[in-house]
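Please review this pair:
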Amino acid sequence: MNILGVDPGIHGGLPIVSIDANGAAPQLVDAIDIPVTGTGAKERVDAIALRGWIEQYKPQHALIERAQAMPKQGASSGFKYGRAVGAIEAVISCCAIPLTIVEPSMWKKFHRLPGKDKEAGRQRALQLFPAAHALLARKKDHGRAEAALIALAGAPR
């Protein structure tokens, strides 16, 4: 079963995690940064590119971290983030993929990750998916890594 994980936002990540019903270790099939178009204040999710990438893998389920306003986040950046989350959710819905919203505390507890340390999440994903090192090699790949962890934590069992 292919599961789409989503760390939402303009600079989030999207992995496809394959979970074998026979109990084999999950595999990170592919992972990308959220595709965007435009720059600066005009930057937005590239919904067409996102749909094309998702349709390549035909995931049976999608899990997205619950979006929430961040403390000290300005109005325009909060609006930009909300637009991105809405676009991502709309594309997933238009692809007819069931979508589950996952609480940040749930997936972090599942993987025993304390606090807000992005690097800890990336390191945990590297442990779970050693064959996918190239997809998670950069420090800025924490969005991909967190989305893979979200997919694992919330995957239907």
About this structure: The mean pLDDT is 90. The beta strands are 2-6, 13-18, 27-33, 36-37, 44-45, 61-65, 99-102. The two ends are 11 Å apart (CA to CA).
